[in-house]
Amino acid sequence: MKLATARLSLLGILNHKQTGADVIRQLLLLDYSLETQQTVLIQGMTAETRLPNLCDQMQALLTSVLGHMPLHGELRALLVDWMHLSQDASNLRFGAGAVESALLLKAMCDRLSRVVGEQVDTFQNLLGHPCCSFE
What we know:
This protein is mostly helical. It folds into two domains: about 1-45, no CATH class; about 50-130, no CATH class. Helices cover about 75% and strands about 0% of the residues. The chain has five helices and no strands. It has helices spanning about 1-15, 20-45, 50-70, 75-90, 100-125. The mean pLDDT is about 80.
């Protein structure tokens, strides 16, 4: 995913100490444009079934979401785990093979689902709507 690579490069430029204040706005606008394009492309790839490509897409989405919530500890930890473990798991090379790889990917997706659920509950509370309870 070249868009994800370009966005990571932009992040490196933005975090570099020698980046001038006069270019930060343009870099942020460029990043926003790339994020929008990336989202459209990912949403259009619903028929994708290759695990390495799906893992790359999920990493790009996690990086995007983390950009909006940089202080969220669990999301940061999840992205780091995803970056280190998903490639081996998607190529079925984690642990003893395919079963352990599938279980690892499922566990990381479950963690992500819990993080998203917690954020939805938080925003529902801020809006004054009670959270759903499943019994």
